[in-house]
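Practice problem: predict the structure.
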Amino acid sequence: MMDANADFQKLIPQTLPERVQPYLAYAHLLVKRGNTDEAASYYNLALSCIDREEQVHPEYFNQPLHFFRRQKDDDSTFAVLKMAVNRLPNDFGFHLMLGDYYVRQGLNQKALEEYRAAQSINPIDQRLQQRMENLLLE
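Answer:
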């Protein structure tokens, strides 16, 4: 019985349609089972399928972003943030997160650029104003 279950588990990824949401769901299942290495691969597969979607939604980036942050994978976190900003240029939150990422990396000029992009979307956000003031005072 155990072998049949293991064989079935191996078939699941092969039956998934090459779309974002099925890969995200499977990656989430892998995380729950403690298989973070394989989950990372499926999060990347999900992101690689974004061109196949009629509409791109912020949720497509949020789940992989949170996963890679928890894994302390700065390179993948950065890649997801850049992809999100490129695909959803009017999303305030992704510009803010990318700006925060740049601050943590010590890239204050790039952070300021992202914060300014966020400001053009939501000019009255207090969190953003505080971040920009802190950067300009350094």
